Amino acid sequence: MRLKVSAFLLLLIGLAIAPASSAVFAQNLDLQGNHWDTDITLQADGSTAQIQEKQDISIRSGTLHFGSRTYTAPVTVQSVFLIENGGNLQQLTPGSNPGNYEVSGSNPTTVKYHFSQTLNSGNSFVVQINFTTQLSANNLLDWFVIPGGNIYPVNNSTTTIHFPNGQAPNSSLVRIVQGNANASVSGNNIVIQSMGTIPAQQPLEIQMPFGAGVGSAGSTNNNGNTNSNPIVPNNGGTGLLPNDP
User: Which of 29, 74, 122, 229 would you call most buried, defined as having the most Cβ atoms within 10 angstroms of its Cβ?
Assistant: First the structure.
């Protein structure tokens, strides 16, 4: 079974107004993602990943009191950080008040983070969530860098994947299952860079095997191309399955 940490980001409006008014107001919320960056460290056991996810978001219209991020596979949240409207970095503490974050559910798991101030049109914020997750198939990463349920476009996305020593695959084994991106090898890391703006509701999904039995990052693929060549996007394909060679 492939790991499907398909997830959706939902920025919710924390206003004490009538449900009908809330629905209308939510429709007027207009957000722009400046960056959605992910740092993934795969553990030597081949079954665990440490992930740092950072989103930089501008509010073009609307008002926000809190936001939330939902993962459709169990994750263990370690810490949440916020920068509000160009201010100082703050580490949130567990709770339901301003400056706190809450974690609910196990599958799915939702992280709700409360701003210390009301954010309005023209404001921006950066949220970083650190967590661990268990791969459902050993030595196979199948990750939705940006989930299909994301409600706003994202200008840029960079994903850096750190492998245990000697376990980074050749870039020819990296699949961009959904979305449009390039992959390159840097030492024992693989960097996946988006190409162009990622529209709202458009996922960016990556897959790759890793481990001692996988083609190394320094090898050459069957076409004679080195691992620095870009990956051709595989939009809508089945991608790499655990039993692929």
Answer: 29
What the block records as the tokens of 2 is 């492939």
Find out whether 9 and 66 touch, Cβ atoms under 8 Å.
no
Q: How far, rounded to the nearest angstrom, does the alpha carbon of residue 120 sit from its chain's CA centroid? A: 25
pLDDT of residue 217: 54
Whether 223 shows a pLDDT value over 70: the answer reads no
Which of 137, 41, 121, 36 minimizes the C-alpha distance to 85?
121
Q: Which residues contact 95 (CB under 8 A, 6 or more apart)?
A: 101, 102
Q: Is residue 6 within 8 Å of residue 203, measured between CB atoms?
A: yes
Enter the tokens of residue 216: 């190394």
DSSP-derived letter for residue 22 is H
What is 62-76 written as a DSSP string? S-EEEEEEEESS--E
Tell me how far apart the terminal alpha carbons of the chain are, to the nearest angstrom: 16
Task: List, for residues 58-77, the tens digit of each pLDDT value.
Answer: 999 999 999 999 888 779 99
Q: What is the pTM of this model?
A: 0.78
